[in-house]
Amino acid sequence: MSGTIFFNAIHAPVGAHSSLTLGCKGRLGGLGRELGNPARKNLFIGLENPKGYFEALPFWEGGTDESLRFDHMKEKTEEIQLPLRPFADSAISREFSVGRDIWTAGDFRMEILSPVLPAPDPAKAGYEAQKFAYCPAVLVEITVDNTKCDHARRAFFGYETDGLDGVFQSQYPIGVVNGRATALFTDDPNAIAGCGFSGQDILLQKCIPNLRFGLGTCGMLMFTAKPGEKAVFHMVAAFFREGLVTTGLECSYWYARFFKGLNDVGAYALANFELYRNAILDNAAKFDSPNLNDAQRFQIAHSIASYYNSTQLLDLAGKPLWIVHEGEYRMMNTFDLVVDQLFFEMKMNPWTVRSELELFVDRYSYVDQVHAPGDANTLYPGGLSFNHDVGCRNAFAAPGRSAYECDDKPGCFSHMTHEQLVNWILSAATYTHQTGDNPWGDVPERCFDSMLNRDAADPADRNGVMDLDSSRTVSSSEITTYDSLDASLGQARANAYLVLKSFASYLALVDLIPANRRAEAMKQAHLAADSLVAAFKKNGFIPAILDGSCDSHIIPAIEGLIFPWILGKWDLMKEFLGLLDALKGHFTSIMESGECLYADGGWKLSSSADNSWLSKIYLNQFIARKLLGVNAAYTGVSADEAHRAWLLKKENLEYAWSDQMTSGVAKGSKYYPRGVTSILWTLE
User: Does the reported pTM lie above 0.85?
Assistant: First the structure.
């Protein structure tokens, strides 16, 4: 592996919004439930050295002696015996891939197996299939090679809790349990579970009954490898939250249908350990290809792990709701993430896409009016569109509103009305094309009318470009998903990025609207294509904003091209050869000039903004290489290696996979799910 091995990676069950995160040095990992960041707690994982002290992976650091809160007579300067030492960096190796994270140090080996599994459709899958997939646990296998030692040695895995609930021992399965929230369990009958103020306290404890100590905030499992044997121990990290867990809509976790609590989760996961291993490895193979380079494999594994951490399958009065939280922000089903995570979800579990889209139609849609820029008082018919998200941090927003969008708010936090309209169309069309299921009724035709109305109030003035803003913006204007960028990608009106997505939406609608309107949709597609081609012919590139207000160069001008391909309409692009030539000419121009490249070979989405998003880079890399046929130094392995190097910068290591990068440093969108656009690479 190129770069440091000490980066945090997330290991998460399907739909439980929980994780075991580890990899960074120090107190920066742990077991977390419903967090937008690592738990930032100590993990004590290692093996007794033949010389009698204990060596651990460096996922811990010293701190305040917790016992001082209780023992006020104890000297604060008293030297505390520390039996725990970190393994030398040179002794540690790591193998990180989809579904697996393997750490080796001397005679110690730990393999973490993350449930990279499809989410079965509750309407079709049986009880056992759902129970297996939605079990909220992560599996860990510890191997101790004690074949060259003539005495027994202890391996251990302990974690510091958040201190909100007590830590106690479980008798069956053997384990340590933090309230009703998290736990470690094993099926090794000889294992010892211990509780204490710290991992050091537990390892030093000679009096076994005292391992039931209930005041500390640390729990640990300890395993004994006999002299001369190679011992293998299985354990699981379990998560649970019972009862209602959301507001706005009252939902519980779907997994609560199958499990009564932590002990039930632990016993089931341990009993099915080998079945999980086989299923995880089988599914991991779906994300490999002989054409991938090592930097791509790393980013695919990292991004998939981060995606699962944000997933949440909820039970709304017997109806399953698929929710993906937005990383550190924890906004729910953010629509501009839904449309990018679409490719991964359609590969793994298409029903989740339908769940997301139906929730937007049923509760998070609205009908507005539109106005021209600078004239908020003159309103024209608008139409149907959709909110930016459905809520935040387990709180569902009110119907027709989002957690993010504000009326009459310039810049960030304005509405993304047109963007979310095309996102719904493209997502629904992809779902229907790949499944044959068309549950949308008249919604696509209503979306088409809404698209037309946002182009121009007078049909004679239409050019395939969004020129009118939602009445919800009042005196301001709409923005795009690239909300934190400058006008090159922030402004929605006449934005080249949205024009191509609009073009793709008109093509997509041809299969969704009544036959008597399909020619009208094709006409709009041609108008949008002509607008982009005209801009290219005039400038030699496609300006970010077609009305001339911003001449920045943007890579995402090509982004919408993914949908004619994913929808099986690539042959139809023979009608738009001029558009393909313009997009290829635009892309090669801005890349060969270096305006959209960093010095390290990484991609810069906009020539005028130092804020580049890895998920969008992955998507546009695929489009450039696969669809536009641009195979140059700047589209090759050097770019992939630069982007991997960003993730492995010191400043970024704690947050696992992150999206928004300023000169390669994560400034936002940390601990993020959208990087699964990387799975498109497997199709090249």
Answer: yes
DSSP 624: I
Instruction: Evaluate the CA torsion angle 333, 309, 307, 614 in order and state its sign.
Output: positive
Q: For residue 583, what is the enclosing H or E element?
A: helix 577-592
| Look-up of token digits 């029903």 | 351
User: Quick one: pLDDT at residue 80?
Assistant: 46
Tell me the C-alpha distance between 111 and 121, whole Å.
Answer: 29
State the Cα–Cα distance between residues 471 and 397, nearest whole angstrom.
Answer: 20
- Rounded CA-CA distance 183/140 in Å is 13
Is 399 exposed, middle or buried, given 0-12, 13-18 or 19+ CB atoms closer than 10 A? middle
Token pair, residue 309, equals 């951490």
The CB density around residue 90, as the number of other CB atoms within 10 Å, is: 7
Question: Is residue 142 within 8 Å of 219, Cβ to Cβ?
Answer: no
Q: Tell me how far apart the alpha carbons of residues 62 and 80 are, in angstroms, rounded to a whole number.
A: 11
- What percent of the chain is predicted at pLDDT more than 70? 97
Tell me the mean pLDDT in the region 624-646.
97
Question: Which are the contacts of 485, defined by CB distance < 8 A and separation ≥ 6?
Answer: 605, 606, 609, 611
Q: What integer is the mean pLDDT of 78-106?
A: 88
Rounded-to-integer distance, Cα 371 and Cα 374, Å: 8
Q: What one-character DSSP code corresponds to residue 247?
A: B
pLDDT-derived band at 65 (thresholds 50, 70, 90) equals low
3-state SS, 412-462, equals CCCCCHHHHHHHHHHHHHHHHHHHCCCCCCCHHHHHHHHHHHHHCCCHHHC
* Highest averaged pLDDT of the listed ranges 74-88, 162-176, 317-331: 317-331
Separation of alpha carbons 360 and 454, rounded Å: 20
Q: How far is CA 291 from CA 295, 625, 642, in A?
A: 12, 13, 18
d(CA 228, CA 210): 30
> With b meaning 16 or more CB within 10 Å and e meaning fewer, what string describes 436-448?
eeeebeebbbbbb
- Rounded Cα–Cα distance for residues 657 and 303 (Å): 6
pLDDT tens per residue across span 213-226? 888 899 999 999 99
Question: What pLDDT was estimated at residue 522?
Answer: 98
Ranges of H-type helices in 540-576: 562-566
- Residue 62: what pLDDT? 77
At 214 the pLDDT is 84
Q: For residue range 431-453, list pLDDT tens digits in order.
A: 999 999 999 999 999 999 999 99
Q: Which of 495, 492, 488, 493 is nearest to 611 (CA)?
A: 488
pLDDT of 301 > 90? The answer is: yes
CATH architecture of 9-65+83-284: Distorted Sandwich (2.70)
Res 605: pLDDT? 96
CATH of domain 288-683: 1.50.10.20
Q: Which residue ranges make up each domain of the chain?
A: 9-65+83-284, 288-683
Asked whether the domain spanning 288-683 has the same topology as the one spanning 9-65+83-284, the reply is no
Mean pLDDT rounded to a whole number for the chain: 95
Q: What is the DSSP-derived secondary structure letter of residue 394? A: T
C-alpha–C-alpha distance, residues 345 and 307, integer Å: 10
CA distance 602 to 186: 44
CB 304 within 8 A of CB 676: yes
